[in-house]
Structure formats: C-alpha cells, structure tokens
Amino acid sequence: NAGVTQTPKFQVLKTGQSMTLQCAQDMNHNSMYWYRQDPGMGLRLIYYSASEGTTDKGEVPNGYNVSRLNKREFSLRLESAAPSQTSVYFCASNGTPKGLYEQYFGPGTRLTVT
Amino acid sequence: GQQLNQSPQSMFIQEGEDVSMNCTSSSIFNTWLWYKQDPGEGPVLLIALYKAGELTSNGRLTAQFGITRKDSFLNISASIPSDVGIYFCAGLGPRYGADSWGKFQFGAGTQVVVTP
C-alpha cells in the first residue's frame, strides 16, 4: 500500500515547454486533488476531481489542465510552462468507503521553470 | 482555497515544553485535519476530527474539534527535536453545494523549532 505517489520528483523546464505530472493512489479514494504550494501562500487548489469522470476548477486553474484517467490516476498538464508556475505541486486524495474525509498527500513534484 | 486563520505563525521552544496552536474560521466545518510537513516532503496526516467537541490523541499529539465548529486546536506535549516542522490545519465544510463540496480550506501553518 503505497498511498499517493507522484512522478517526477523534480523537473526543470524552459518557458514554453509542456509536461505532465502524474499521480496515482491505491486507497480506493473517490476524490483527487492537485495543489501548488508557494512560500507565504500556503496550499492552493488547482483542480480537483470529486469522482471518476468529473473534474472541476479550483482557485488557480489558469495554465493547467487535468485528466482523471481512472479511479486511481489523476494527471496535471502544463501546456506552455511559465516562470510563474515554478512551485511545489502536491497531489492528494480522500473519500473512504466509510465516507470519512481523511485527505492524504503525495511527496510532491518540485518544478522550476526558467 | 480560502485560508483559515492559524496561529501562532512560528514557535521557538525548548525540548520538553508543550506546544499549542489553533485554527479559526468564519464558517462551520464538519471535518478538521491536522498535518505535519517536513522540509522537502509532502504533508503527513496526524489527526482527523469529525464531531464538535471531539478530542483525539495520537501519541504526544492531541487535537480538539471546537464546540462552535469554527475552530480546532492542536497540542504537542513534551516536545522532542523531531517535532520540528510546519504544522497546518485543514477544514471541510458541510455538503451544501457543488461549488464548495470537497474543497478543503487550509491554514498557513505554524513553524515549530525545538531547541535542546
């Protein structure tokens, strides 16, 4: 039981390049989330997926797209990276069969856009 | 999402001392979560609370769901050096609409520094 896994752990991009951050959970959770964490800003929600087949915008969705591939996997895509997207990205999931909302985070992806 | 008010922002304490921090909100919550984050790592869930007035412990950690449902508290007793890190709270409100459901609100974190 690995919990929430994310790849890659580190990434450096040039402005304009694209990439996809991968996230997978093995806890049979319904909901999955993508956050970014910046110094002094706390965690900010980019997109979330309340259940398989649905996705919704969070607080800071501009410049990102997501795909809920199946119940386990939720990917985040940067189509044209900008320096403002330099951040630490966390994937999270919650929603146990008992209906309890314990949200678990992955280890993060540290992205630098030059 | 909307930030919760978490205080204090930082604490410098000596080993063996107790630590207290809290989070407050203007709206009510059904769930409070407390996390610890070490440098370069993802947040780790410490305690989950689901009922007003609930008091839950996890080793030397104790958290309480405020009776008004608008606040929560975390205490660390007899601190040790490995307690160093950032602690933050997260809250989830009632299921009252598609726009808000499932979106946690987060505190900005309390930086705990423990000196020998």
> Which structural class matches the secondary elements of chain A?
mainly beta
Oligomer: heterodimer
**Spatial separation of the terminal alpha carbons of chain B:** 37 Å
For the sheet with most strands of chain B, the description reads:
11 strands, mixed
Structural class of chain B: mainly beta
What is the helix tally of chain B? 0
Tell me the β content of chain A. Answer: over 45%
What is the number of E strands of chain B? 11
N to C succession of SSEs of chain A: EEEEEEEEEEE
Rounded to an integer in angstroms, the radius of gyration calculated over CA atoms of chain B is 14 Å
* Radius of gyration of chain A, whole Å: 13 Å
Report low-confidence residues of chain B grouped into runs of 5 or more: none
Question: Overall 3D geometry of chain A?
Answer: globular
What are its keywords?
heterodimer, A: 114 residues, mainly beta, globular, B: mainly beta
Report on this model:
The complex is a heterodimer of chains A (114) and B (116). Chain A has 114 residues and is mainly beta. Chain A has no helices and eleven strands. Chain A has strands at 4-7, 10-13, 19-25, 31-38, 42-49, 56-57, 64-68, 74-78, 87-94, 104-105, 109-113. In chain A, the strands form two sheets. In chain A, strands 2, 4, 5, 6, 9, 10 and 11 form a seven-stranded mixed beta sheet that branches. The radius of gyration of chain A is 13 Å and the shape is globular. The model of chain A has no long low-confidence stretch (mean pLDDT 92). Chain B is an all-beta fold and 116 residues long. Chain B starts with a strand and ends with a strand. In chain B, strands 1, 2, 3, 4, 5, 6, 7, 8, 9, 10 and 11 form an eleven-stranded mixed beta sheet that branches. Helix content of chain B is 0%, strand content 53%. The model of chain B has no long low-confidence stretch (mean pLDDT 90). The chains are: A mainly beta (114), B mainly beta (116). The interface between A and B is medium-sized, with 23 and 25 residues.
